[in-house]
Amino acid sequence: MSIATTDHSGETASPNVEHAAPSQRVQSIDVLRGFDMFWISGGDHFFDALAVATSWIWAIFISRQLAHSVWAGFSFFQTFFQTRIIVIECTFE
């Protein structure tokens, strides 16, 4: 937010504003962190409800992929917690 002052001559004078240096953060890590947190915090419940409410085949498929599987392999949902660990390790400075 910039605050301008008016001097007695009627001209608007802008105060000296210092801009912060650009951030050195990698924005793709922030996007990945947000995507990961969406699924960890309950994104799977959205697809469960969508599959029950609509019976769409693709929603049922995604809902099944987000269910915890027995130790006969893993599903897509089980990769999110590992992704969170990778994101945390990548952001340490």
Would you mind describing this structure in some detail?
By secondary structure, the chain is mainly α. Helices cover 53% and strands 4% of the residues. It is built from 3 helices and 2 strands. It has helices at residues 27-54, 57-65, 80-91; strands spanning 5-6, 12-13. Strands 1-2 form a two-stranded antiparallel sheet. Strand 1 and strand 2 (12-13) form a beta hairpin. Helix 1 packs across helix 2 (57-65) and helix 1 (27-54) runs antiparallel to helix 3 (80-91). The longest helix has 28 residues, at 27-54. The model has no long low-confidence stretch (mean pLDDT 78).
The helix/strand order is EEHHH
Largest sheet: 2 strands, antiparallel
Global morphology: elongated
Which strand order do you get reading across the main beta sheet? 1-2
Beta-strand portion reads under 5%
Share in helix: 40-55%
Give the end-to-end Cα distance, rounded to a whole number of Å.
31 Å
Low-confidence stretches: none
